[in-house]
Amino acid sequence: MDDRIREHAETLVGWSARVEEGDDVLISVGEGAHELGVAVAERLGDRGANVVSLYGSPELSRAYLRAHDGEFETDPEFELALYERADSVLSLRGSRNASARADVPGEIRREYATAREGIREAHTNTDWVSTIHPTRAMAQQAGMSYAAYREFVYDAILRDWKQLAEEMDRLKTLLDEASTARVVAGGAGTDLSFSLEDRRAVNSAASVAYDSHNLPSGEVFTAPRDATGEITFDVPMTIRGARVRNARLELVDGVVVDWAAELGEEGLTEIVETDDGARRFGEFGVGMNRGIDRVTDQILFDEKMAGTVHFALGRAYDACLPEGESGNDSAVHVDLIADMRGGDTKLEIDGETVQRGGYFRWEDGFEGAED
Amino acid sequence: MDDRIREHAETLVGWSARVEEGDDVLISVGEGAHELGVAVAERLGDRGANVVSLYGSPELSRAYLRAHDGEFETDPEFELALYERADSVLSLRGSRNASARADVPGEIRREYATAREGIREAHTNTDWVSTIHPTRAMAQQAGMSYAAYREFVYDAILRDWKQLAEEMDRLKTLLDEASTARVVAGGAGTDLSFSLEDRRAVNSAASVAYDSHNLPSGEVFTAPRDATGEITFDVPMTIRGARVRNARLELVDGVVVDWAAELGEEGLTEIVETDDGARRFGEFGVGMNRGIDRVTDQILFDEKMAGTVHFALGRAYDACLPEGESGNDSAVHVDLIADMRGGDTKLEIDGETVQRGGYFRWEDGFEGAED
């Protein structure tokens, strides 16, 4: 077995999920994630945890859903009991075909999801972590060879997470204490300001100890208020199966008043017009994972890329809001990403430039970048 | 997908497990059983059952067990809760390597099994069925090409089970009402008599409706008493990894008093000397599955082969005993098989010949066979 798979498993079990002796750990093994499953099982045995292995197969799921009449029982008791008693749930994704469930009718998916809200809540209440094992199908989706894709994935996953968490904590502190922030990218015509009053940032350091549930991670995010200005999202991505290029939004007092895109404008319109909350930003995030150095059109990686920022149209995360306050609500949460790795970009917090050309002021590249 | 896989799934879900709408069904998908898993998921969706899919991977299990210090928690709560609430457990075995767990120390296996007695009991209390999906590894074990092995497996599984159950019921009735039985095979020097007083036969028709939990099945078995005589088991088999050929036993008043084997005598001795119960027969079974027409050294198939009988050294099944009575007890239950497909063989019940040359008296071949 590739040593990196063993290191991945140890990072997942040790750093991310913080599994301890006697923990009841549910692992879900994707169709293409067998090798990671073996490595994780070994780490869990070594720690003296208890394990139940689920088969996370989109093909089984597709067959089941398509054959079902759609009247799903609410939270089947045996499955709910399993999730309610689990301490951790580790999802090892590893797709053999990203489109495996493409022909499951949307209505059936929705009915199924609706019937499982209790199970989803029980899942969320565990120390859950989702990670991915690189497969050929995912390499294909990223337009990369399998060998290169694996290099890419392990560069993103096998970080010095403790050190990165400390660095991200510096930005979190700045955002927590900030009244306002501003994102500027001259070449892209971006100049957007927003308030951060009463907002709390999350240090997403790929560990349940940081309320962070994805491996890899590596971003700091918060919930912006009253965004005003213009921004171009120049990182290409696929949203709901459609390619989107250079989506451009204009906001006034927190509301999107105009939008356009070089490609995929129709899909963008559909998203913005979902509901009132979809016209507002629910998230402002800053990618800080230097292991991610290229766009792969996989949101799990792209939004963590060091030197990018992202805003999400729609739902805000409760973790960013004062206790008891509900933030922007919407049926959607769609991330859009802007590249800040350039000569004329900056992130200002309370009027001070904290990032320039994609480098923070505590990084070597900062001084060299143009102001 | 091969139509036979779909038929297999329908036989499993419909005939064997009798799954109904709203049932909580746990399926365990072996490493090589993905396709059968997909077909079974489809059938379960069609019936409106609820499904949780486990990953039945010997490689994950091996990695976990080898890394563990051996002090296993007794019946981990989350797993016990799952099995206690399941209506059915369908195990879809499909080995990619029959020796995948060969290097797990025996002591660790025993500790693990001992710690899971409650889970095993909960499993046994469900409508559980175990079946196999043919793989290349299993074809190799049987010494057959993959195509031929699949033909063989589906011939064994895709029977007219209703009709076979009716036929087997005829033999069950004869055995239930019998005082004595006798097995004779002149060429092999076999002449063994035994009592069936107070014994009840099981019609193992591959369905929970018949207290039968394997697909394929196709045998009628009971618990013999006071066997006396000699018998040669001429169906070659592998027991505990060692080849056994022509094991020959002599019994007096139910106890093995002498034994020998052309090959594997040492292993046979080890079995016979396990404990007092291992010197007695716990089971007499009659294979009645005409889809199984060759020996593959896989006990699930071999002991069901029409025209064979088998006796097991060791433990008897409670289902064959009067309520409250405990039959032969032992730490072992080792099946040995004798071929009755020959000119000079017969099975007598209360002095009447009911099978001759491998054919029952209600079958066409019976009259043609020599008496």
Compact description:
Two copies of one chain form a homodimer. Chain A has helices spanning 3-16, 34-47, 58-67, 77-85, 106-115, 117-124, 136-141, 146-157, 161-177, 265-272, 299-302, 365-368, and strands at 24-30, 50-56, 88-93, 127-132, 180-185, 190-195, 202-204, 214-215, 219-222, 225-233, 237-239, 242-244, 247-252, 255-260, 281-287, 308-314, 333-339, 345-349, 352-356, 359-360.
Which helices and strands appear, and what pairs or packs with what?
Two copies of one chain form a homodimer.
Chain A: H1 3-16, E1 24-30, H2 34-47, E2 50-56, H3 58-67, H4 77-85, E3 88-93, H5 106-115, H6 117-124, E4 127-132, H7 136-141, H8 146-157, H9 161-177, E5 180-185, E6 190-195, E7 202-204, E8 214-215, E9 219-222, E10 225-233, E11 237-239, E12 242-244, E13 247-252, E14 255-260, H10 265-272, E15 281-287, H11 299-302, E16 308-314, E17 333-339, E18 345-349, E19 352-356, E20 359-360, H12 365-368
Helix pairs in contact in A: 1-2, 4-6
Please identify the structural class of chain A as seen in this structure.
Answer: alpha+beta
**N→C terminal distance of chain A:** 48 Å
Strand order of the largest sheet of chain A: 14-13-10-6-5-18-19-20
- Whole-angstrom Rg of chain A: 21 Å
Largest sheet of chain A: 8 strands, antiparallel
Q: How many structural domains of chain A?
A: 2
Oligomer: homodimer
Query: How much helix, percentage-wise, in residues of chain A?
Result: 25-40%
- The mean pLDDT of chain A is 95
Largest interface: A-B, 43 and 43 residues
How would you sum up the global shape of chain A?
A: globular
Q: Give the DSSP E fraction of chain A (strand runs of 2 or more residues).
A: 25-35%
Counted by DSSP, the helix tally of chain A is 12
Low-confidence stretches of chain A: none
Tally of strands of chain A:
20
